[in-house]
Amino acid sequence: MIGPFAALLVGALMSGCDTMTPDECKTANWSDIGLRDGAAGKPISLLEDRAKACSKAGTGIDSGGYIAGRERGLRTFCRLENAAPLGLNGTAYAGVCPAPLDFEFRRRHQAGYAVYTLRNEISGFDSRSDRLQRKLREADSDESKQLAASDKDDDRKRIRREFDERRRHLRNELRDIDRSVQGTRDALRSAEYIVDTLR
Description:
The chain is an all-alpha fold. It has 8 helices and no strands. The longest helix is centred in the middle third of the chain and has 51 residues, at 99-149. It is elongated and about 85 Å long. The N and C termini lie close together (9 Å).
């Protein structure tokens, strides 16, 4: 389970906006903006982007206040218990944590991200399987229509051969998907176990 603090952090990452309007530039509290960016794990390069946006609006920035706020935010972001939930959510890690924490944070994030990736793969396999199942049903329907419209035995034999071949290819694809899903589910169980050991 993802803890309530980590869930809130993930929500902030999903809802945050990196652009600033001219009005926001004029009224900005740069310490608060730095705090928010740091708590969301944003890279320091974002400050340059914000500075450019505000320069176009004719407004300067308080880089010292921003950096101080960002450092406070990073102390929140770089807690090790946040790393796996970020990966599970599919959020990238920008390598912003200090060297003593970076290796372990990155390891935990990668463990969570592996689960996220495998779950997406299984979802993709399920979608492909659904499409193939639909094509099988359509093949049966189309064959019936073509047979009903044909009154020659040779044509009816040809239609049956063509649709038998089409169904054979579709069923082979479905078997391949089933094997892939089985292997991916095995890998997912192992990946989920690794994440569970980190909690």
